[in-house]
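Progress against Task 2.4 (sequence-to-structure conversion) is shown through the following example record, which the project officer requested during the mid-term review.
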Amino acid sequence: MQKMFVCIVCCLTLSACSHFPCEGEKGAEATSPNHQLTATVVHIGCGAISKDATWVTLHRTGEKYDRSEDIVFTAVQQNRLEITWLDDSHLSVFCRCRDEDVRFQVIKKGGISISYK
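Structure tokens generated for the chain above:
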């Protein structure tokens, strides 16, 4: 099951602009109230090679923020996102993007519920 999930994430990530050979720039981040997890916005710039993208990753605080297995949201274009923790197990993502630009959304990762607006 985990291999299938990783495969799906990789395929969707590629469709929203692979990180290679694109450049990733760390954007806003929010740390959970218990400081265990961090959600990070990553802006992927691909230039003329492919469409730019925006990712949200959910990872352990202090670990790499741009690993594909940590992606919980992708959208084409570089969108403005707001990420906030409602409590230790609820993350809220607000995207100023069109529905058709959203490529991937995870609503539950581990014990974390993620809501999108």
